[in-house]
Amino acid sequence: MATEPENVIAIVPMKPLSQGKSRLAKTLTAEQRADLAMGMLRRVLLAIRAASVETIWVVGG
Predict the structure, then answer these.
(1) Is 41 exposed, middle or buried (0-12, 13-18, 19+ CB in 10 A)?
(2) What's the farthest any 2 CA atoms get from each other in the chain?
(3) Fewer Cβ atoms within 10 Å of its own Cβ: the N or the C terminal residue of the chain?
(4) pLDDT in tens, the chain (61 residues)
(5) 20-35 residue pLDDT tens
(6) 24 phi/psi in degrees, rounded to 5
(7) Are 10 and 56 in contact (CB under 8 A)?
């Protein structure tokens, strides 16, 4: 029987919004790319929370 792991920490790497999704620069404006990156981060964080992970670190440079 499987048991729940203890003390799980999720570490989410995140570039500064101004640098994210740079390969889409020909298609999207800087603001649109920042909005996309933020939306993706929100979805990742919601998924982590849904998995009952109590500690989440968003790490960027």
Answers:
(1) middle
(2) 51
(3) N
(4) 677 667 899 999 999 999 999 999 999 999 999 999 999 999 999 999 999 999 999 999 7
(5) 999 999 999 999 999 9
(6) -95, 10
(7) yes
Reported pTM: 0.82
Query: Which amino acid, one-letter code, is at 6?
Result: E
3-state secondary structure the chain: CCCCCCCCEEEEEECCCCCCCHHHCCCCCHHHHHHHHHHHHHHHHHHHHHCCCCEEEEEEC
d(C-alpha 20, C-alpha 43), whole Å: 16
